[in-house]
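Module 6 notes. Inverse folding takes a fixed backbone as the condition and produces residue identities as the prediction. Think of it as a translation problem where the source language is geometry and the target language is the twenty amino acids. Below is one complete input and output pair. Work through it position by position during the lab.
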C-alpha cells in the first residue's frame, strides 16, 4: 500500500509540474540552441558524451539550458552527481557532501560531480571548503550562474574551471520549441489541437527574450485559458499572446552593457 502511495504521489507531482519541466530535454537530440559550444565534435559535447567532464562553470541568462545540460551530463556519466544550491545549502551540508565524495572515491573508485547552482552567491567560507577538494580531485566541480562569472565568481574557482557562455536562444530554436509544445498537447490522452497565428508567434518569440522557459510558460498560460472554438481548435491570436507575456526586463552592468555580452566562450 505504501509503495502504491509512493508511485501515486510521484505521478501526481509530475502531472502538476510546469510544462517547461515536463518538456526538459533529456539528450542532445532534444536540446535546442548553443551550437557554438555544443555543435557536433565540439569540445564540450564530446567531453559530456565520453564522460570526461572537467571542472566547468556555465554562465548565461535564465532559460537557455544550464540546468538541462546538468541533466544530460548526469545521464552520460558513471560519476555520482550531487546538486546543491549556493543560497540554500549550508557549509555543513557542503562539507558533508565532500566527505561523502572522498569516501565514495576510496571505497568504490567512483567519482563525484558536485553541481552548485547560483555559484556566484557562494560565501568565502563555502569557497574555502570547496577549493581543496577540487585541487586534489576528490570532486569534479560544475557551477551555474546568471551573472558574469569573471566579475561575480571567486577568481580561485574561475582559475580551476572552464567557463562556457550560453546565449539566448535564436528565433529558429524558439520556433522549434513552439512546435514541440503544440506536439505535446496533440499527443495527450485528452488532446488539444492548437493553432497559433503568425502575429502571436512573432510576439511570443520577441518578448521571450531568448528564454525557453519564459516562452513555454507563456504558451502554457495561453493554452490553459483559451477555450476551443467551434472548429475544436485552441486558437492563440495576438491579443492572447500579448496578455501572456510582457516585455522582458534586461539587466545591464555598470558600463551599460548586457552582462552576457562580455563573457568569453571559455578559458
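Target side of the pair, the amino acids:
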Amino acid at each position: 500500500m505504501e509503495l502504491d502511495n509512493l508511485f501515486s504521489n510521484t505521478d501526481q507531482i509530475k502531472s502538476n509540474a510546469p510544462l517547461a519541466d515536463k518538456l526538459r530535454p533529456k539528450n542532445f537530440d532534444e536540446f535546442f540552441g548553443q551550437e557554438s559550444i555544443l555543435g557536433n565534435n565540439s569540445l564540450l559535447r564530446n567531453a559530456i558524451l565520453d564522460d570526461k567532464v572537467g571542472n566547468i562553470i556555465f554562465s548565461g541568462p535564465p532559460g537557455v539550458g544550464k540546468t538541462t545540460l546538468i541533466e544530460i551530463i548526469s545521464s552520460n556519466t558513471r560519476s555520482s552527481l550531487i546538486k546543491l544550491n549556493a543560497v540554500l545549502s549550508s557549509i555543513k551540508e557542503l562539507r558533508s557532501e565532500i566527505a561523502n565524495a572522498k569516501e565514495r572515491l576510496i571505497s568504490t573508485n567512483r567519482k563525484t560531480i558536485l553541481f552548485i547552482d547560483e555559484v556566484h552567491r557562494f560565501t568565502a567560507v563555502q569557497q574555502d571548503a570547496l577549493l581543496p577538494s577540487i585541487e586534489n580531485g576528490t570532486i569534479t566541480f560544475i557551477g551555474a550562474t546568471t551573472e558574469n562569472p569573471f566579475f561575480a565568481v571567486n577568481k580561485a574557482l574561475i582559475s580551476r574551471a572552464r567557463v562556457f557562455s550560453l546565449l539566448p536562444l535564436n528565433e529558429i530554436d524558439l520556433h522549434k520549441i513552439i512546435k514541440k509544445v503544440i506536439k505535446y498537447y496533440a499527443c495527450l490522452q485528452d488532446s488539444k489541437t492548437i493553432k497559433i497565428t503568425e502575429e502571436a508567434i512573432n510576439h511570443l518569440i520577441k518578448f521571450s527574450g531568448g528564454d525557453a522557459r519564459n516562452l513555454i510558460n507563456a504558451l502554457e498560460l495561453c493554452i490553459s485559458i483559451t477555450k476551443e472554438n467551434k472548429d475544436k481548435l485552441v486558437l492563440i491570436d495576438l491579443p492572447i499572446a500579448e496578455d501572456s507575456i510582457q516585455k522582458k526586463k534586461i539587466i545591464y552592468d555598470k558600463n551599460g552593457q548586457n552582462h552576457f555580452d562580455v563573457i568569453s566562450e571559455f578559458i
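Reference fact for the lab report: The chain has a mean pLDDT of 87.
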